[in-house]
Amino acid sequence: MDPFTLTALATLASHVVGILAPLVPFLNKAGEAVANKIGEDAYEEGKHLYKVTQDHFASKADNGKASKILQNFTEDPEEYSPNLEKQLLLFLKADPEFAKTLSQIVQTGPMQTMDFGDDANIEDTHMDSESEHSSQTVQAGDRAHFKNVSMNIGHKREKDKLDQE
């Protein structure tokens, strides 16, 4: 079972289109002035998001239909946003890895990930993030063993802070 519900995928598609719509008129122009106006991070995130989306759409064996939807969107985001969102949702439902990739790009908080191979012994490992918009994942291969592993998101309680001092 894949980790994204239909509602989550629809939200992700809407979020991606919402990020791209105000940026697409500037993606093909000189980026420095635009980046200064909207913020370097937002501009770079938008460029990356567009490139990943464009590459995915171009990889489809549909005689260029998906790419044409994206091209129409870049020419008139207001008019073609619903078309792009619909097509994006179809691709997200069909490809959990693409959904994961876009989700990671639009993630608004820190992302902490640990990947371990087969036969790994993971002990006394702790991930903490005070940002409530964080995500944390741990993945391990076959026969991996975990002992005393914790993952915490949110502000630390005062007692926890005192215990560390």
Structural class by helix and strand composition? alpha/beta
Uncertain segments are: none
Number of strands: 4
Proportion of beta-strand residues: 15-25%
Number of domains: 2
Strand order of the largest sheet: 1-3
Helix-strand pattern: HHHHHHEEEEH
Note the gap between the termini. Answer: 43 Å
Number of helices: 7
Sheet with most strands? 2 strands, parallel
The quaternary structure here is single chain
Instruction: Choose one word for the global shape.
Output: elongated
Gyration radius, rounded: 20 Å
* Helical proportion, percent range: 55-70%
Give the mean pLDDT.
81
Give a written overview of the molecule.
- By secondary structure, the chain is α/β, with parallel strands linked by helices.
- The chain has two domains: 6-106, no CATH class; 111-164, no CATH class.
- The chain contains seven helices and four strands, in the order H-H-H-H-H-H-E-E-E-E-H.
- It has helices spanning 6-23, 31-38, 40-58, 65-75, 77-94, 96-106, 158-164, and strands at 111-116, 121-129, 135-140, 145-153.
- The strands form two sheets. The chain has a two-stranded parallel ribbon with strand order 1-3. A two-stranded parallel ribbon has the order 2-4.
- It is elongated, with a radius of gyration of 20 Å.
- The termini are far apart.
